Amino acid sequence: MMGESIVLHRFPNARIYDLSPYYSEFVPFTANSVYPVHRWYRFKEGFSRDLVHLILGSIKDKVNVCLDPFAGSGTTALACQEIGIKCYSIEVNPFLHHISRVKLVKDYNLIGFDKAIEKVKYNFKNFSGKNFDEPIMSTITERPNLEKWLFSRPVLQAILALRESTNEVEPIYADLLIVVLASILTDIGNTIKDGKCVRYKNDWRENKFTRDDVGIIFFERAKIFRDDIQSIENSYSITSDNANICLEGNALQKLKLISGDSIDAVITSPPYLNSFDYTDVYMPELWALGFVNSYKDVRQIRNETVRSHVQVRWKRENNYLHDTLGSLIADVVENPGTLWNSIIPDMIGGYFLDMQEILGELQRVLRSNGKLYLVVGTSSYNEVFIPTDLLLAEIAEDLGFDLEEIRIMRKLKQSKKKVEEKEQIFAPMRESMLILRKKGI
At CA 63, angle to CA 270 and CA 31, rounded to 5? Predict the structure, then answer.
């Protein structure tokens, strides 16, 4: 399975192959919709279980221990657990970390699940008519002089009642039922996730869900989770336990807790350099489900993320890692009046400095000849193409990795703006997988 090799004049040593016809079906998270547990929450930005298994199957040496420092909803760790591979995972967003950890728990059974559901039904019924304190988020629900809101008041009160109803349930099932609740928020709320943002549904003002409607939808969705628990019980025995090594927090800080030369393979996809703030996109879940209680909590999460978005005024960096990056940033700021946000140049520089530190830690924790599979996307700002894959490859090689190849996995929609002739060699926009090997001793 080898596509056409593309030679790049500014990166002559890079082996880059267009394999998008082969990989395009493996990249989107939507492929997970047919797999038990993986389908519990649709994480739009993630890759598929099949891609993880495809990568693991291609590694010649036996893989005993894996790592994903940008876990998202836990696909890598869960795919590893399914075939008995130990996998450390790290996620900074507390909501996504909860999803990931819950999917990795091995101890669910039908008796415990059914008991939990009956308790929640009983509590939810008894809470009828009770008003719960609402989150302070300004747009969480309808308020005076507010034009748009995430949830109608009956829907929000039903969400809060279901949350409260799990308090007397055994902890592993209480956590699981929060995931059930998370999985219906788009169905009962006024917004959908669309690209880099939360967008209001066209008919959101016609949302007439009652408290009882929300309860019906919740308990119907719980049946899918029950089916998956039964399927897992009857299909295979999980020999690894990755829930206890699913870590919450800043990727760089948590990587320092992992022993050197202990990881056989890293399979991950860091935030793309596309000004996409996951904190923003998951605001409905973070606030409605109680993962944040103040704007200070939100700021703290944003400050702990890789510098890939403009929701924080990042520190200006002048110590660029390569002349190529410095010249690209200079091109971006050449006409600042056309930039949609003045923080973008600082974000670009900060992103690659953050990734340099993370790649350095990954080089430390990987064993000799261990593999790093890094799925990234390219970017374009102010008509300047940023070849993220090639720049990260250069940084990784400086840190002691050998670049085996770069595979174009999916071609992205090209910007309508004209790409200068000298940059045309980088087009089109793409998602790529870097395959890097830690040099042997």
Answer: 50
